[in-house]
Amino acid sequence: xxxxIAEEDSPQSVRSAAPAKVNLGLRITGRRPDGYHLLQSxxxxxxxxxxxxxxxxxxxxxxxxxxxxxxxxxxxVPAGDDNLAVRAARAFLAAGGIERSLAIQLDKxxxxxxxxxxxxxxxxxxxxxxAQLLPGAVEPDALAELALGLGADVPFFLDPRPARVGGxxxxxxxxxxxxxxxxxxxxxxxxxxxxxxxxAYDALAPxxxxxxxxxxxxxxxxxxxxxxxxxxxxxxxxPAALRLCPPIARLRDRLRKAGAPAVGMSGSGPTVFGAFPxxxxxxxxxxxxxxxxxxxxxxxxxxGCR
Length: 306
Prior knowledge:
Elements: E1 6-10, E2 13-31, E3 37-56, E4 65-72, H1 84-95, E5 101-108, H2 118-133, H3 140-150, E6 163-167, E7 171-174, E8 182-187, H4 194-204, H5 226-229, H6 238-244, H7 247-257, E9 262-265, E10 272-276, H8 279-288, E11 296-300
Parallel strand pairs: 4-5
Antiparallel strand pairs: 1-2, 2-3, 3-5, 3-6, 6-7, 8-10, 8-11, 9-10
Helix pairs in contact: 1-2, 1-3, 4-6
């Protein structure tokens, strides 16, 4: 996969990479009256990701129809209308008042429920591809609203590049280019529901949120040395994820022992990562970590870093 966002195949079919992401720190800063949590986090896309192809059918179709074809790592991936990519396509067509058939081919490589943003990235890719295929059908502001309605991470994936994300996912500020590094990702082979982790978070700290919210997440300076990154990786959801998935602690410990100068958990988990100077160092660390199936590990490089 490259960092290229979209590549046109034909006037009626376009494709896009749908990158995974990691969270370099995550802070819960408050909670709205409707129950949605406010957060601050640094999102960084990776060269690990899915591939999405969207193809338009006949323009005179009676009503809208969305067909989905799945390839790759399909375990746990919804194959019908519950798939977030399908929901994104239907939302776009409805917002644009378009009655047209379309097909989505989704090659899945981001594991489900890993805290890496796979479903949200697929949805973001579908929205931006449809905006390319049907220019002007949905204005940019309306497209951002559609994305937010699909999930807190989806707006970021409309233009995936390193960013500081806040609010309920609608506040996106590009980050200064970070120094290049590589990540060793490790996962216990267990899927975690984001909703379940937030419920566990609320149960662990009922009423603990300060009236004016928690302190802001410290900014990531563009010249941050890798050794100093560790202090920026605190994730407020980690205690809740640990309650649901205790092996997270063991994997963090193994990354430390393998020499990672910075270790964090991505999103709502359970994927944890160690940051290394380069891919060779990350690969060597993974080779030293003994992962028993169904646990898995892989090396990924952040996109948009120097």
